[in-house]
Amino acid sequence: MRGMMAAPASRVLLVADAVGGVWSYTLDLARGIAERGGDAVLAVLGPPPAEDQREAAAAVPKLRMIETGLPLEWTAETPEALETTGNALAEMAAGSRADIVHLCSPALAAAERFGVPVIGVCHSCLATWWKAVRGGPPPAEFRWRIALTARGCAAVDALIAPTAAFAAATAEAYGLPQAPHVVRNGRQPPRTATSRQASFVFTAGRLWDEGKNLMGLDRAAARLAFPVLAAGSVEGPNGARVALRHVRPLGRLGEAEVRRWLARGPIFVSAARYEPFGLAVLEAAQAGCALVLSDIPSFRELWDGAALFVPPGDDAALAAALAEALRDRALRARLCGAARERAARYDAETMAEGILAIHRQVLQAAAERGSGRKSAA
């Protein structure tokens, strides 16, 4: 009946990778689904999860995980390979009797029509990455992937982005008639925030990703008299690699290990040129760390007034801001408090409710379309 609120999906096919923050996002969403009476099937694309990631997934109620080994849009070597991924996901949706499909990239919907409503999440994309990091016309190996993402954006029932800044960038990149829905990412905070102020700088994420600008941070670290530590892999599944001379790489760390480093109270830094949201920044803020961030639209939207900002690509300014934050204890205390207070806006519960509200809207629209077809018959 028109105007009635659709029930939440009883089963969701979640599609994710285990390479970066999408993994944490997906598990938090799966918990939200379970808490509201539903269950989820998690199809993992790309490289297999690490053992700690498997354990984290196993701890989520009513979640069944399938490791597919299928390529992502940025690791697929041909359009046909990505079409194979889409076909397999459609079969998985049917076989698991999913009510709705929640994709980690709209490109996965480009070549396949699913039999149920589909949500495409704009966590990042090659078109916006290229514009922010390189500029100019993208290369051929990017162009076909960008074209598939455009087709996927047109095919899904709804798009979601984690910030208004990235929603606007996505709409511009693909000529969308309207920007994606904005549901900010969230994480469950630790029980207590740190009150310590350690004398080192910390960052975390996909260090190999040129958009994270680890080379800029490495050059800034050469100007500093205190250690700069980085958690994450220096080599990506697409062959990208970063060689660090002054930043100390810690390798890939599990979520619990990262939280232990943050609990020591370092200055957290992100020198990113491209970051649609930045879950590592949020986790640092929740832990009570002071933030030093590049002044890009998404960070400014989320953390304005709660961080020190530096122009992206200005290594000297980055080094100066880090030195100031470490030297001025009163400034650092204000930054810690402001970051922790702002982070309270971005919790996992609010994120799940926002996403599942869009699921309900899409399911309601699908039910009304089905009712209209029956009436016409």
Summarize the structure in words:
This protein has 377 residues and is of the alpha/beta class. It folds into 2 domains: 11-186 and 348-376, Glycogen Phosphorylase B (Rossmann fold, 3-Layer(aba) Sandwich), CATH 3.40.50; 201-343, Rossmann fold (3-Layer(aba) Sandwich), CATH 3.40.50.2000. Helices cover 44% and strands 15% of the residues. The protein contains 13 helices and 13 strands. It has a 7-stranded parallel sheet, sandwiched between helices. Strands 10-9-8-11-12-13 form a 6-stranded parallel sheet, with helices on both faces. β8, α7 and β9 (228-231) form a beta-alpha-beta unit. α1 (21-35) crosses α13, α7 packs across α11 (315-327) and α9 (279-287) packs across α12. Mean pLDDT is 93; it is low at 1-6 and 373-377.
Keyword list:
13 helices; 377 residues; Rossmann fold; 6-stranded parallel beta sheet; 13 strands; disordered C terminus; alpha/beta
Low-confidence stretches: 1-6, 373-377
Corresponding CATH architecture of the largest domain? 3-Layer(aba) Sandwich
Spatially, the strands of the biggest sheet line up as 3-2-1-4-5-6-7
Query: How would the global form be characterised?
Result: globular
Proportion of β residues? 15-25%
The total of helices stands at: 13
Largest beta-sheet characterization: 7 strands, parallel
Give the class-level CATH name of the largest domain. Alpha Beta
Mean pLDDT comes to 93
Q: Helices and strands: which structural class? A: alpha/beta
Q: What pattern of helices and strands is seen along the backbone? A: EHEHEHEEHHEHEEHEEHEHEHEHHH
* CATH topology descriptor of the largest domain: Rossmann fold
Number-wise, the strands total 13
**Could you name the CATH homologous superfamily of the largest domain?**
Glycogen Phosphorylase B
Number of domains: 2
Rg, Å, rounded: 21 Å
* Terminal CA distance: 17 Å
Helix content: 40-55%
